[in-house]
Amino acid sequence: MKGITPFQSLLLLFLFTTGCTITFSDDEPEAISDCEESCENGYSYYNSFSVETTTLEELKSKIAVETAIPYEETGKLYFYNNTLFVNQPKEGVHVLDVSDPANVQKTKFIHLPGNIDISIQNNILYADLYSALVEVDISDLSNDNVTVGNTKTAVFDYDPYGAAWELINAYKVDNDYYPRLEYQELDKIKGLGETVFVSGITYNGIKCSCDYLYRDDMVFLESTAADTSTAGSPKRGQGGSLARFKVVDDYLYGLTQQAIKIFRINDDGSLSNWSSVSVDWGIETLYRLGDLLFIGSNTGMFIYDIEDPGNPTFVSEYEHFRACDPVVAEGDYAYVTLRSTNDWCANNVNQLQIIDITNIFEPVQVGTYNMFAPYGLAVRGDRVFVCDAASGIKIVDVSDKTNPRVVQFIEDYDARDVILLDNTAYVVTTAGIVIYDVTDFDNPVALGVQEL
């Protein structure tokens, strides 16, 4: 079966707006007389799909601590209290004991259906469950116990149609008819995208539709489908450069596609709605440097003043070619990686950019270095640690900001993001976790590996 993108699915929805549908029980429709007789202006066949759904309450009831499981896919990572939390997209987080980096132990798995991002403060784990935001008390995690707290609904972006088409594109059908999602069924589901989510699909077989606009020879494109704490201060962890959540003092920031959602963290760790700050479409990542918040987006870097953390105010914007990017900063410079590896960020730009932020109101690009497909990064002094996907790990000397150069190249891993803490680098790869001693930054020493 040919793949189809969400945009193309909307086109199909427009095309299939008239006439009746007839279902065939066989794999291939042999009799077409019914369609011929009932369709005045032509007909076509398609593979029909319906969605299966689950509720937010059902998802919350599944949040639990389980025994350690193999990595199927790695996502974002978060460090807290000598523990590394590694996301398995839409499934939950692997819990790794990294107190001894040479002997990393995967101890358990927290099942968090629909999860992509987390942030932790004072043993309260904040996690997205599709579009919802949930509080989970992990103070008794060592005894395999977690307590689910309050939930905020409709916080983050969730596209039920896109979720359905992702499953449809992965479904194998032994014919060449185009797929069709029965949109009318979705439109009748109350709370879809807020308290009800797509959990699967059902194949209904081949159907016939009356529609003179749709032709069998129509062509569609294939789918591609740590903060330091002082005595008495909150104890929080540190995420990688791809983080979409950020604890800032007594506030939790979470990014939608176009806004910062801000929540007040109460003394007991619960969240109160605070405010929402519109930014621009396509924002992706958060990074804090003192009283400044750097936001990476598809089209540039935004800088906000967070001296009053409950009220971020716009400072400036740096624009670049359309590409997926995170951003980190140190001193008078920000570092951005641009990646063009999917439909949203396709502009054939893959590079590290160095931005002079001496004048915070007018950021200026001063240097670039071409990469393979860079994801996350971290900066320490005049060295930038870049996770360059299948091309491995690159350590870039940026002492001359106008002429960056690679001084170390580690090809062993498909690297995606990194957390630097003191002299240790925690790297998430597509196969698991690698930990390096970076006392000599130009010559990292592998301490431990935790893979499939």
Brief account:
By secondary structure, the protein is mainly beta. 8% of the residues lie in helices and 45% in strands.
| Helical coverage, percent range | under 10%
What percent strand? over 45%
Mean pLDDT, nearest integer? 87
Distance between the termini: 31 Å
What topology, given as strand order, has the largest sheet? Answer: 3-7-6-5-4-14
| Annotation, overall tally of beta strands | 34
Which structural category do the helix and sheet elements fall into? mainly beta
Rounded to an integer in angstroms, the radius of gyration calculated over CA atoms is 24 Å
Total count of helical runs of at least 4 residues: 5
Could you describe the largest sheet, including whether it forms a barrel?
Answer: 6 strands, antiparallel
Q: pLDDT under 50 segments (min length 5)?
A: 6-20, 212-231
- Inertia-based shape: globular
What does this structure look like?
- The chain has helices spanning 6-15, 33-38, 56-61, 160-170, 183-187, and strands at residues 21-24, 43-55, 64-67, 77-80, 83-88, 92-97, 105-111, 118-121, 124-129, 132-137, 147-152, 179-181, 196-210, 238-239, 245-248, 251-255, 259-265, 271-278, 283-289, 292-297, 300-305, 313-319, 327-330, 333-338, 351-356, 364-370, 377-380, 383-387, 393-397, 405-410, 415-421, 424-429, 432-437, 445-451.
- The chain is mostly beta strands and 452 residues long.
- The protein has a domain at 6-55 and 158-210.
